[in-house]
Amino acid sequence: MKEGIVKEAAKKSTLNSRNIAKRCAKAARGKKAKDIVIMKVKDISSITDFFVLCSGNSEKHVETIADSIEKELKKEMIRCLGSEGLGKTRWVVKDYGGVIVHVFHEETREKYSLERLWGDAEFL
User: Fold this and answer.
1) pLDDT tens column, 86-102
2) Which residues have a Cβ under 8 Å from the Cβ of 113 and sit 6 or more positions away?
3) pTM of structure
4) Of 9, 20, 81, 101, which one has the fewest beta carbons inside 10 Å?
5) Which domains does the chain have, with CATH numbers?
């Protein structure tokens, strides 16, 4: 099932999930996101291959980072399959099939600590 979703999200793109995750991190870095982490969860989860986590220092910054990632992937013909948190911009989640992006407000990231929760993941 997951592979079918990845293929749909990456339709017309030659990027694999790892490269999509790297592209997300690069777009976040371009908007001065903090503490950017790529986690390979493929071996410990059936929901996705990679998480990309990053932080912004204000709600507007979080929204700007999330928008930048979406625009960057649209250039590669990769569309977002779903998103949550827009308008509630302390934590935005964007689903690209094989990659799920989490853009946090710094305080929210500390509170939920996904790196600790998914501590068995491989960090790239």
Assistant:
1) 666 799 999 999 999 99
2) none
3) 0.85
4) 81
5) 2-123 (3.30.460.10)
